[in-house]
Design brief:
OB fold (Dihydrolipoamide Acetyltransferase, E2P); 3 domains; six-stranded mixed sheet; five-stranded antiparallel sheet
């Protein structure tokens, strides 16, 4: 029997000082984390950051070089993948083309020893088909299904064994944008209905933000920051996180006033920016190198002859590019001393005022509460 850990009963997955090396390459570097039972958890990061290796360590496809991994409070180090209470949905779904939908879904039950009675398998397949909204599709061949339907078959095949945890390896990467959004909603709904832990690996920040309860951002095998989507978006601990999660404008400079009510940063051009520091970020002192991060949707854009608003940062510039994106318009504004600044203007705002074209002189502005001051690393 696996060793019982002292983990809380509310924790499904735990890494304790886990390292995974492939010869000279450290894919996961001394990682410790916990995933609560019933959470929708995501590993997010660029290629080569260690997120897929972390998922494979949970699945049992790889074993840690050092450290311990617990599933449901039990150590699983050394236990092969087929004996772990987890199932995985792969990016390409890995459905069997020679089997119909029902046979694909019931495959895991037929591999058990002892195998459940035939009627039990049929009953559970039918229940699972209903769960993923594919009732009546049991006799279809997989090539007769759409991409979204194939994904639901892959999910059903993974869920029929009642795993402690469902692992999702970029399962939406092959879908078009509209279908991807529909499947994101279906996955969230399904996760709430079945109540088991979902762990997603993705490099798509929008996907992670829209689906997850908690996100772990990785870089070079280590956790940079972990938290709720809102925490990561609103309070990134450093430039890497702010740049990776969402679109951001950065203004580099030196801290000239590290006060409790705000931090003032002076850029090389002499422009002084004021903002707040995220609670979890390392402290800054006068003279520290820093950058001011401002989300483009927090910036107002107006004609230069319009009355000044209450925003305390105001910069004049010229529109160099305009992209209409339906719900908002994206402007690139060239400024003297502050470089190019991206602005996202909602359609609701533009319908009440005016839009701008490349070449127009404009004024951009924002308040100090819209700016974050973080270490320039």
């Amino acid at each position: 029997m696996p060793n019982q850990s002292t983990s809380s009963n509310e924790i499904d997955i735990e890494f304790r000082d886990v390292t995974k090396r492939f010869e000279d390459v450290v894919a996961v570097d001394n990682m410790s984390l916990t995933v609560k039972r019933g959470a929708f958890f995501s590993f997010l990061g660029p290629s080569g950051c260690g997120k897929t290796t972390s998922l494979r360590l949970i699945a049992g496809f790889d074993q840690p070089t050092q450290g311990d991994i617990f599933i449901g409070g039990n150590s699983v180090v050394g236990i092969p993948s087929h004996k772990r209470p987890v199932n995985m949905v792969f990016q390409q779904y890995a459905l069997f083309p020679h089997m119909d939908v029902s046979e694909n879904i019931g495959y895991g039950l037929r591999q058990r020893n002892p195998q459940p009675p035939r009627q039990e398998i049929i009953r559970r397949v039918d229940e699972t088909l209903e769960m993923v909204r594919l009732s009546g599709y049991g006799k279809r061949r997989v090539w007769e299904l759409s991409g979204g339907q194939q994904q639901r078959v892959a999910l059903a095949r993974a869920l029929i064994n009642h795993p402690t945890c469902l692992l999702l390896d970029e399962p939406l990467a092959a879908l078009d944008r509209k279908l991807r959004r529909e499947m994101q909603i279906e996955l969230q709904t399904l996760q709430r209905e079945v109540g088991i832990t979902f762990i997603l690996v993705t490099h798509d920040q929008e996907e992670a933000l829209s689906m997850s309860d908690r996100i772990c951002i990785m870089r070079e095998g280590q956790i940079v920051q972990s938290g709720s989507p809102r925490q990561l978006y609103d309070e990134p601990v450093n430039r890497y996180v702010a740049d990776f999660v969402g679109k951001t404008n950065f203004f580099n400079g030196d801290v000239v006033d590290a006060g409790d009510k705000g931090i003032a940063v002076k850029s090389e051009s002499g422009q002084v920016f004021v903002g707040m520091q995220p609670k979890a970020a390392p402290g800054l002192v006068n003279g520290s190198k820093a950058c001011v991060a401002v989300r483009p949707e927090m910036i107002a854009i107006s004609a230069t002859d319009e009355a000044n608003n209450s925003n305390n940062i105001t910069i004049d510039g010229q529109v160099t590019n305009r992209i209409f994106l339906g719900e908002h318009t994206e402007y690139l504004v060239s400024t003297e001393g502050c470089g190019d600044v991206m602005v996202l203007s909602p359609k609701s705002v533009e319908s009440m005022s005016r839009s701008f074209e490349p070449g127009d002189k404009v004024r951009i502005s924002w308040g100090s509460n819209a700016a974050l001051v973080i270490g320039d690393t």
